[in-house]
Amino acid sequence: MSVKSALAAVLQQQGIVTSQQAAQLTNSSPWWLQLLLGLAAWIASLLIISSFLGPLLALADNPLLQLLAAVMLLAASLWLATKAHDFVQQMSVAIALAGQGLLLYALYELSGQNDQVPRYACALVTLILLASPLNQLHQRVSLAIAAVCLLSLVQSAVLLAVLSALLCALSVWLWCNRPRWAVLSYAGRIKSLLEIATLSALALSLLGQCLLLFDSSHWLDHKLTLAQALYSALSSVILLSTVFWLSKLATVPSRLALLSLTAVLCILLYPASALLASTALLLACFYGCSRRWAVLCLLSMLFALSQFYYSLQLNLLHKSGLLALSGLAVLAAWLLLKRYQRRLV
User: Fold this and answer.
1) Could you tell me which residue ranges the DUF4401 domain spans (predicted)?
2) 293 and 200, same structural domain?
């Protein structure tokens, strides 16, 4: 018996997965075959959708008919999602996204070309489809589109900073509690939501650190300085809370030392809010045993560090001194952790 078969048998005995899910685990196709099947399914779906939507948009300039066609596409995608074949699963994703796009276009026309109605409708449809049998790829893509639509409605820099902190805190909490929700029947939906929340938190934290550069067109209000201070303060609180939770098994002196070093790091890197938020997410993703997201958080840290070093807010000597002291604080924390691990052995 292979490792996958043994793992699927144990998960099925403990009631974590059903017999159908266990069969999918053991009979999964190689990655290269899934890639070829997905490519073929998307090409076939585009041909089918274009042959269906092209004449409809050209001949029937009626939003109600377009709305009906969108509902039909969504119903077809839900039916295809119940099939277990990889090719059909990829087709269901493509047809569902086409149905969602046509639905939003029809609502845009029905609302008198009000662009806010489709944005709210996109978020509502995404929440409804989370309870459908569509696969995780569609859930992630739909959640990403819905997040972009909702965040595009925000025009306050302070509110954007608060939303960034809330998404970061939610992501850290979910990553740290991954063993608890991973055994639930709806763990796949939580994982999709977690990944989009983590990606949004990283993107918003980088936006907050580069707020003066990105808002050259005056998209947000004029409280950019207050928003940047709020970004830094909330990121520091999240990093301190993460270290406090992750060091719960350490001794009291070691825990106080780690929290003190983290506080020093937050003070030194206060202008680099994205670096603090990415560090907290990196620790949480590493604790949640996700290498892929830990690497993504590390890349976000490198980008935030580069932006901080080459920004013009502080002089080069000042920034070099802050980074050198921050490196010493991280080195001291590492030596403290190594000493604690030796005491456990």
Assistant:
1) 30-340
2) yes
18 found inside a domain: no
Q: Is 138 exposed, middle or buried (0-12, 13-18, 19+ CB in 10 A)?
A: buried
How many domains is the chain partitioned into structurally?
Answer: 2
Q: In this structure, is residue 97 part of a structural domain? A: yes
- Give residue-wise pLDDT tens across range 137-169: 777 888 888 888 888 888 888 888 899 999 999
Give the separation between CA 190 and CA 252, rounded to whole angstroms.
34
Q: What's the pTM?
A: 0.78
The phi and psi torsions of 156 (rounded to 5 degrees) equal -115, 125
CA distances from 336 to 243, 252, 322, 340 (A): 14, 13, 21, 6
Position 14 in a domain? no
Q: Which two three-digit tokens encode residue 162?
A: 């608060």
- Domain ranges, residue 170: 164-345
Q: How far apart are CA 17 and CA 300, in angstroms?
A: 35
Q: Which of 111, 99, 21 is nearest to 67 (CA)?
A: 99
Question: Given phi > 0 = left and psi -120 to 50 = alpha, else beta, which region is 238?
Answer: alpha
Q: Is residue 309 part of a domain?
A: yes
Half-sphere exposure of residue 341: CA atoms within 13 angstroms, side-chain side: 6
Out of 97, 124, 153, pick the residue that ends a domain. 153
Same domain, 135 and 234: no
Three-state DSSP state, 122:
helix
